[in-house]
């Protein structure tokens, strides 16, 4: 069984939305955060602390405008980056990026779309739930 999860980011009043959101999609619990609340921004250990608090398999964050996806302590962390290549203090030449998740029973295929030198590239990363357990 496959699931489709769509998110649209718009300009909004910060008070209208919670700081975190947890979704259950298939066999996965997915945490969504903006990322500004992580100190220092994008810090792996700080993200892991929030992942444990939310009790999620996958934590999706942003704010840094820099793509990252990695496994840490048996969980998966995703920062889709910025589809427009917006300024980032972490990158001298930010590259536009976004991700698409193909969620299956116990695996996720993460498709990463980037624009490099005016050419789009697609790469794939797989995360297998409970692989480390």
Automatic annotation (TrEMBL):
Residues 15-105 form the Calcineurin-like phosphoesterase domain. The keyword Repeat does not apply. SUPFAM superfamilies: Metallo-dependent phosphatases. InterPro entries: Calcineurin-like_PHP_lpxH, Metallo-depent_PP-like, Phosphodiesterase_MJ0936/Vps29. GO terms for biological process: protein transport. Pfam families: Metallophos_2. Keywords: Protein transport, Transport. Belongs to the VPS29 family. Component of the commander complex that is essential for endosomal recycling of transmembrane cargos; the commander complex is composed of the Csubcomplex and the retriever subcomplex. Component of the retriever complex, which is a heterotrimeric complex related to retromer cargo-selective complex (CSC) and essential for retromer-independent retrieval and recycling of numerous cargos. Component of the retromer cargo-selective complex (CSC). This is Vacuolar protein sorting-associated protein 29.
């Amino acid at each position: 069984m496959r699931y489709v999860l769509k998110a649209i980011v718009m300009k909004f009043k910060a008070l209208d939305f919670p700081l975190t959101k947890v979704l259950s999609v298939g066999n996965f619990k997915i945490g969504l955060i903006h990322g500004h609340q992580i100190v220092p921004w994008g810090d792996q250990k700080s993200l892991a602390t929030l992942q444990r608090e939310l009790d999620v398999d996958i934590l999706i964050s942003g704010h840094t405008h820099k793509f990252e996806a990695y496994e840490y302590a048996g969980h998966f962390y995703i920062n889709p980056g910025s589809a427009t290549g917006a300024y980032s203090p972490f990158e001298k030449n930010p590259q536009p990026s976004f991700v698409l998740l193909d969620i299956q029973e116990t695996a996720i295929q993460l498709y990463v779309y980037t624009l490099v030198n005016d050419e789009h590239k697609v790469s794939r990363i797989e995360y297998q739930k409970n692989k480390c357990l």
